[in-house]
Structure formats: C-alpha cells, structure tokens
Design goal:
single chain, nine-stranded antiparallel beta sheet
C-alpha cells in the first residue's frame, strides 16, 4: 500500500493553503492509524495549524454512535428497538406509532427538524434538547406511513437521544462516554451538547469564503460528536470486527433496512453500505455550519479512511473516495466526455425541459449549456453538467459529485458516495405565469402562519423570500416549494418536509403569536 497517496491527494487541493481553514485525514487498519495528514489551520485568526489531534464537529457521522447507544440499551434489555417511541416520550402527539428502529433507519416519516427550524424561525443558538422538543411535540402527522419509505430525517435521531435520557436518567453525552468512547480509548471524542463550552484543540468552522460558520445548536443525537483523526482509530477497529463493544453490536449497526414491501436498502443504522469502485464499503458523511466530513471502511482490504474538515467548501466524500481508490490500487474515476458531438447532442435533447420529484415536490429545469453541456436551475441545485463516458451527466466545479441519468422515462438525480440513493424525477409542465395568490395560512401543528403579500412569502419569525412560479403548477420560495390544493390550503415541501399543510385563514388575518421553542 502506497501511503504517500495521502500526501498526493491532499496536496492537490487548491482550496487549502497554509493560512486557510483545511482538513485532516487518516488511514487505518486493525484499529491503528497507518497514516495521518493535515493541511490548513484550525483557527484562521490565530494561524493555529491543524494536526492529527485537532478536533472537528463531525455532524451526521455521529449517527452511528447514537445508533450504537440505542443498540446497547436494547442488548441490556432496558428497551427494544421495536418500541413505539411514544412509549418513552409520551408527550409526543404523533397520530401513528413510530418505532425507535424507524427513527434510526429514517423510515418513520418524521418531518425534518431543520425544516421546522426554518419555518418557525427559532434561532439555532436556542435549540438544545429541551427547546427543540417544544417544537417536535407539536408534530402529529408523518410524511408517509412509517416503515414504507425512506426519507432522511435528523428528527428521529434527536428523539433517540431523548429516549436515552428517559431510559437511563443520563444524557446521551454521558452514556456514550461511559459505554462507547472510554471503553474504546477514545478520550478526545464526545457529544458536545453545549455549544457554548470551549473545547481544547477544537477547530473553528469556516465557509469557503473564509467567514466564520461554527456550530450553534446544542441538540445532539443526529450530530454533535467532536473528534480527531487520531482518536477515530479504535472505532475503525470496532467496525472491522466488533472488538471491545461486541461483534453482535457491530452486526446490529450494519444490518440493512428492509421496507414493508420487502425492498432492501443500503442504509442500516447510522451507517450506509456503498461501493468504492469494485469494493464494498460502509460509512457515513456529515456536514454542518463550517464542518464537513466522511468516514469509510472497506472490509475486504480491512482499510479505513476518514476526512474531517473545517471548511464547508471542501468535498470530503470525494476526497475519501479518491483516497480509498488510490490506496486499494484502483484507477481514479474518470469523467471524460463521450466521443461524437451527435451522440452528445441527442442525449442532451432528451433531457431538456422541466422535471419534478412527485414525493418531495422538488423541481428543476434543464436548458442547453455551453460546449454541449446542461444548465440546471431549481430548488435543489444550480449546476452546470457535462456528459461523461459512463453515459451520465456529471456536475462541474462546485457541483462535483452530482449526476443525472435517464432511465425508463424517469430522470435520476444522485450524488457520488451519498448515503441517499437517487431521486426519480418525471417530466412536468413549465412554470405558469400567474403569481402566487395572496393570503394567510396556518399550520396547526406548529402554530405558525404563512403570509403571501406582493409576491413575498413570510413564514414564522425570520423566513422571508420572494415567491416565483415553478414547474408543475407550484411556486418556489428559497428552498421550499408550495402548492395550493383544491380546498385552498397551502402545502409546503422541501428541506426534509413533504406536503406540510397550512390551512387557509379568513381574509384579514394578521400574523401574530410566538412559535413554540421561544417560550
């Protein structure tokens, strides 16, 4: 194994200089770090270099640790993963049962709390576990029948953290410290459930433009773990063979999800099965306010790779995949263009137009781009794509990793190395010319009003966006898509929400009231 590949891959990153936020990477085997490497600084203000012990917020990579805690409690006999989450959190007003296991597998149909935060406007700084629960206890309706679909939702993992506290009387941070981190010797790893507390060797987070973008909320479970590439080595040992914590616990985390119709999914519990070229792998990515990272383990060669960053413009998924391919002797993935202008033009023509995902209501438009490419605009991505030798259209520049492919009349949209599999879009009507009707609508689960006046939408305390017509009879405002149904009600989708209903209100209704979580 040529470990110098680590330096070559990281050295090619033009986004990282000696005075910019950067990253740390680790390569692991048999529970040991074979090589660690770092680029950039942990604090731009003070020029502190990143090293192997610099700690990063690893965001959703944390989910595997949360899932491990719940699985330990199941093994201890203190709960069952098949328990209705309402058994342990009785104040939840969900109208249908959602199991702990469905929370961990993203099959519970729970609305995404980041979307709920956006439409209530409750500041992130206020969102510890207690405050966030004031919002979540208002939710009654799931977005689909639990167990029948997969929709990535951080909400289930926040509820999982609450279950740990209710069952054990201890916070998730305390339980994980005593049952996972310390037994493994991971003494620099913890759930950071108070974002105001300074941590030794903690990297500050930054945007690609160099501005500060640190974690603000203190609710954990869906994220919140801070760690370093040095401290992750024992966890890779556990992922290899279950050492210290038990092979049975490892198998529980890796067990793939099976939906009610028998479909077997790549997502397990906090970990997703993927392919790295010709090799199978599993891991998880994460991203949050200035921090992005990825963790991969390839069981056949017994190789682990971690890439943690404090610059949100970096692509740790792409970096870790390049590292894994190089270290296992696989050729770099190519994106060369198809030969023949006629073949390319024919493929492009078939994709031009307007597309809609019936499940999420996401829409986008494809128009001719320069040099035979495609220009994509919509609620998910604004990107330029080029046709690759594999027959897919691949995002360029900042959209690297995004791909499109036409299959059986549907247009699949995916992302290389993503834990989410491709979304299926169907052709739809172009945007209409009419502005969104003015009015006031109320969501009775959150107690939040949506108001449209003079083609501007206002929801909750802070969301204010111009409304523009979108394909398929919808309107778009920021990341959200809106549809008005036959009753005049407003259906809001996007940001992990699907068809959240806002009931039409009498003319003259004024926006008053304080969303849950602020009192």
């Amino acid at each position: 194994m040529d470990l110098e590949q680590v330096e070559r891959v990281l050295g090619a990153l033009t986004e990282v200089r000696e005075d910019t936020a950067g990253l740390a990477a680790g390569v692991y085997a048999d529970g040991q770090a074979l090589r660690t490497s770092a680029r950039g600084v942990a604090t731009v203000e003070f020029g502190v270099p990143i090293d192997a012990r610099t700690r990063f917020d690893i965001a959703s990579i944390s989910k595997q640790f949360t899932a491990a805690c719940l699985s330990l409690l199941d093994r201890d006999g203190r709960l069952s993963l098949s328990d209705d989450v309402r058994t342990h959190i009785p104040e939840l007003r969900l109208e249908v049962p959602v199991t702990i296991d469905q929370c961990l597998r993203h099959t519970g149909g729970l609305p995404e709390w980041y979307g709920l935060q956006a439409i209530t406007g409750v500041p992130f700084q206020m969102l510890d576990e207690e405050q966030l629960m004031k919002i979540l206890t208002g939710i009654r309706r799931t977005t689909f029948e639990p167990g029948t679909e997969f929709s990535y939702s951080n909400t289930g993992y926040v509820l999982a953290a609450v279950v740990v506290r209710r069952v054990t009387g201890r916070s998730l941070a305390e339980f994980a410290r005593d049952r996972i981190f310390h037994p493994l010797g991971m003494h620099d790893t913890e759930f950071r459930d108070d974002a105001s507390v300074p941590l030794p060797r903690m990297a500050y987070g930054y945007t690609g433009a160099g501005t500060r973008a640190d974690t603000q909320e203190s609710a954990v479970g869906d994220g919140g773990v801070v760690t370093s590439v040095a401290d992750l080595a024992p966890w890779f040992g556990f992922l290899a063979d279950g050492r210290v914590l038990g092979a049975d616990l490892r198998e529980t985390l890796l067990e793939r999800t099976v939906l009610a119709d028998g479909s077997v999914l790549p997502y397990a519990r906090g970990i997703c099965h993927i392919a790295v070229g010709e090799l199978s792998a599993y891991g998880h990515a994460g991203g949050m306010h200035g921090y992005v990272g990825n963790l991969l383990y390839l069981p056949e060669p017994g190789l682990g790779v971690a890439v943690l960053t404090n610059q949100s413009a970096l692509d740790p998924v792409g970096i870790s995949l390049r590292l894994a391919r190089a270290l296992t002797g696989q050729a770099p993935e190519t994106r060369s263009a198809l030969a023949g202008a006629a073949a390319g033009e024919s493929a492009r023509t078939a994709l031009l137009g307007h597309w809609r995902d019936p499940a999420s209501e996401a829409t986008f438009t494809l128009e001719p781009g320069e040099d035979g490419g495609l220009s994509m605009t919509g609620s998910l991505h604004n990107a330029v794509l080029a046709l690759g030798a594999d027959g897919r259209w691949h995002g360029q520049g900042g959209a690297a990793g995004v791909w499109l492919a036409l299959e059986d009349g549907r247009l699949l949209l995916g992302h290389e190395g993503s834990i989410r599999w491709p979304s299926a879009f169907v052709s739809c009507d172009p945007p209409g010319g009419d502005p969104m009707p003015e009015g006031v609508w109320l969501n009775d689960e959150l107690g939040v009003l949506a108001v449209v006046r003079k083609e501007v939408l206002r929801v909750g305390l802070t969301l204010q966006c111009p409304v523009v017509p979108a394909p398929a009879g919808t309107w778009r405002a920021g990341h959200f898509t809106f549809r008005i149904d036959e009753n005049g009600d407003l259906l809001l989708s996007g940001f992990g929400l699907r068809g959240m209903r806002f009931a039409t209100q009498p003319e003259g209704t004024k926006a008053v009231g304080i969303p849950p979580g602020l009192v």
